[in-house]
Amino acid sequence: MSQLRIAEIFGPTIQGEGALIGEPTVFVRTGGCDYRCTWCDSLHAVDTAYRQTWAVMPTDAVWQEVQRLSKGNPLTVSLSGGNPAIQDFTQLIALGHAKGYRFACETQGSIAKPWFSVLDTLVLSPKPPSSGETVDWTAFNACLQAATGAGKIVMKIVVFDDTDYAWARAAADKYPDLPLYLQPGNLEVDPEIAVDPQNLADKLLWLVDKTIADNWFVPRVLPQLHVLLWGNKRGV
Amino acid sequence: MSQLRIAEIFGPTIQGEGALIGEPTVFVRTGGCDYRCTWCDSLHAVDTAYRQTWAVMPTDAVWQEVQRLSKGNPLTVSLSGGNPAIQDFTQLIALGHAKGYRFACETQGSIAKPWFSVLDTLVLSPKPPSSGETVDWTAFNACLQAATGAGKIVMKIVVFDDTDYAWARAAADKYPDLPLYLQPGNLEVDPEIAVDPQNLADKLLWLVDKTIADNWFVPRVLPQLHVLLWGNKRGV
User: Fold this and answer.
1) With the C-alpha atoms ordered A13, B153, A209, B233, is the resulting torsion angle positive or negative?
2) What is the ipTM of this complex?
3) Which SUPFAM superfamilies does the entry mention (chains A, B) (predicted)?
4) What ranges do the domains of chain A cover?
5) Which of A20, A71, A181 sits opposite B215 (nearest CB)?
6) Residue B190 annotated as lining a ligand binding site
7) Chain B partners within 8 Å of A218 (Cβ)
8) CA-based, 20 to 30 A from A41: which of A205, B53, B90, B149?
9) Inter-axis angle of helices A59-69 and A90-97, to 10 degrees?
């Protein structure tokens, strides 16, 4: 059994963003990331300063925990992080699929893995300039290639400012066949500080207004519902 | 050309709810409805007291208006109401499809129409007990039958209270193959009164918590984003 490095497993809750927004989901959040986005909202799964909080678990222990949380009722399991593409989920997906569970994975598209091809949903979220990272499009294309056979492949881009927005448009033009989801960036990532829902609405409106002013009717524009519901609290 | 009775045509904006949440959309809201839901949020398109505000337009005038609003850029056109299934959208859909537009229709499922089969998305939203209406499931089944060939058929149920919730579960059991979307009901429908986003979040949380407490992982649970963004203002 593969070993997996896990920051947290939690749920069921609803998926708060993107293509599966509203979908009942158990999250398997892996520890470790090849990126260091300036505005990362999951540093506890990224920064090696938190490494001692990550559990090294055999795949069957992860699968037991997913079944315990969902009480054996099949639902969507979201592999997130950190960057889950660092690790090997082949066995977890096989165990879950055998029981009717579905698997989504969210990754920036920097590392391709063969198990992308058996996912139900692959969300590739290339990071815009405000992240401080630079996308390697060759690696991104390798992810698309590896995902051939996946149920659905979509692209999600977080937009913090006008520069990110222009970058998102150019990225969309590169991949006209990928369904595109935009979401406004969230700088209020402290789990201890309550989020103002009006602020969330205002940022969404800003992004909706931009796409409409440009007659850019390609992306679906969505908020982070989990932030509306729970602020930046962990484990929901 | 068919004549259409139109309450309003507006957009582009984003679809605020259901399967196409976040999708850039022009809304064609028809006038007239065979239902009188107690909590209707679109009485101006339902109550015959507003009948003099509805325009009778030939289909090509509706199509011209959709093109003008979208500046000729293809997007999703949502046929809503009232109950759009009272009318004949065959020609509008054909005109739009020829230019790459997509068509979604939202109806309670009380009247079946042949043009359901050429829709890209049919949203059937049977009304729960709190509406004061009673669903005719024979008519609902006829809608499903008429929609054979449509791109996607989904069910959406608004839930105001525990009785509605139990009813939604039973309806879902009847149609296990229909993707299901639940949304909390909205009683604050006065366009003049500002909506409290925290209240919207609280109602969503109530519904999310219910489905999860019951290990009912079938429906996607979503809010009305347009209410978060614009309250109950019309034309957005």
Assistant:
1) negative
2) 0.94
3) Radical SAM enzymes
4) 3-230
5) A71
6) no
7) 24
8) A205
9) 40
